[in-house]
Amino acid sequence: MKYGARNQLIGKVTSVKKGDIMCQIKLDIPAASVMNSVMTVESLDDLGIKEGDSVKVVVKAINVLLVRE
Amino acid sequence: MKYGARNQLIGKVTSVKKGDIMCQIKLDIPAASVMNSVMTVESLDDLGIKEGDSVKVVVKAINVLLVRE
Amino acid sequence: MKYGARNQLIGKVTSVKKGDIMCQIKLDIPAASVMNSVMTVESLDDLGIKEGDSVKVVVKAINVLLVRE
Amino acid sequence: MKYGARNQLIGKVTSVKKGDIMCQIKLDIPAASVMNSVMTVESLDDLGIKEGDSVKVVVKAINVLLVRE
Amino acid sequence: MKYGARNQLIGKVTSVKKGDIMCQIKLDIPAASVMNSVMTVESLDDLGIKEGDSVKVVVKAINVLLVRE
Amino acid sequence: MKYGARNQLIGKVTSVKKGDIMCQIKLDIPAASVMNSVMTVESLDDLGIKEGDSVKVVVKAINVLLVRE
Predict the structure, then answer these.
(1) What is the Rg, in whole angstroms, of the alpha carbon atoms belonging to chain F?
(2) Which helix (DSSP H) or strand (DSSP E) does residue E48 occupy?
(3) Pairing between strand B22-29 and A33-40?
(4) Does residue A12 belong to any structural domain of this protein?
(5) pLDDT digits (tens, 9 = 90+) for A30-69
(6) Among B14, C12, E43, E65, whose Cα sits 20 to 30 Å from the Cα of A2?
């Protein structure tokens, strides 16, 4: 399994919140950080993930914004 | 300083590679993971970051793809 | 404060509409134009913005589509 | 002509810089602001735009990040 | 009409589902494939599309992820 | 293998063009359409795809812009 994206982490689903069209999934990633993903409820149903599941977290590098504070 | 994005990590720049229009920055994030960002060379020059600098890594949740392998 | 994104405007929030998961914010930018941002309600709550506030509007150049009509 | 995107401005092309795969276009938008777009060189060639041309600038609201400084 | 995006298909709207802020549109594209678009309900109302309408489906190449299974 | 994205097609790689940082891949999808993907050269090297290979083409619905001409 290979992805054309530079950022790939393993996350553990900690919560799933469904809205009417979109839903929001929270994940724990290593080092006690939290990440969030938003997708359609349909995609969530296809994925079939629930709290406690491990998933691959994929982000294209072009979608990563750096800020110098 | 507040961002309208769910995913915010602190990363340390480990390499900067400039192309003609775009450039690629590698970062260490906690737990020995690596992230990558692609931006224009102009944005990089404005940011003024170099290896060893700490930066904020910001990703909107909508750009996070989950995959169940 | 420096952002790795080519497009940065100052906008004034004119309306905030919350949905279940996502929300939509309208902003006035200079020259009487209007812009819109969509984010999670959680991000909005973290941002803590309300009508009349000034915010930075950041868009990566790769997300700007040009059309010749 | 109707677009499924909340942000639509009229811009005037002020510079076009071609790289090997990607290119960067600068535009003046009303009120003396500048915007930037990055696309493939192929898309640029199809668009056929050059300095001085007027183009429609389209950005989906989900790609607009708000920051409170 | 020219777009600064590499991927342009013609799709036929097969369903429109409105949420509070976002909506989801399903389209048939040639060869019996299905595509989906998510946008704000406001954008949908501006577009004024309904089932059976033909629309242009535009995707920037940078938003296309390739996976080798 | 399940993806949290609404748009998934099978494409056949027809050309790979490498730049300094980014590269562009062309694919045939069913019904004689062509799609394009842009990614970093590093991602391409990890993917290890070449002309003639079949790949999964994944696009989140939020990145699909509809236009009524």
Answers:
(1) 13
(2) none
(3) unpaired
(4) yes
(5) 765 788 999 999 999 888 988 899 999 999 999 999 998 8
(6) B14
Residue F29 belongs to some domain of the structure:
yes
Within 8 A by CB and 6+ apart from A20, the residues are A41, C19, C20, E19, E20
Q: Is residue D69 part of a domain?
A: no
Cβ-defined contact of A38 to B65 (cutoff 8 Å): no
What is the CATH number for F23? 2.40.50.100
| Residue with the two structure tokens 């300083």 | B1
Is the CB of residue B16 less than 8 Å away from at least one CB of chain F? no
Strands (E), chain A: 2-3, 7-18, 22-29, 33-40, 54-59, 65-68
Q: Is E67 at the interface with chain A, CB within 8 A? A: yes
Q: Is A36 within 8 Å of B66 when comparing Cβ atoms?
A: no
If one counts the domains in chain A, the total is 1
Chain A contact probe: residue of F6, F13, F24, F43 with most A CBs at under 10 A: F43
Domain that holds residue B51: 7-63
Asked if the model's pLDDT at residue F48 lies above 70, the reply is yes
Mean pLDDT of D53-58: 91
Q: For residue C24, tell me if it sits in a domain.
A: yes
Q: Please say whether the beta carbons of D68 and C48 come within 8 A.
A: yes
Q: Does C66 touch chain D (CB under 8 A)?
A: yes
Whole-angstrom CA distances from B37 to A6, A26, A61, B8, B44 are: 8, 22, 4, 13, 11
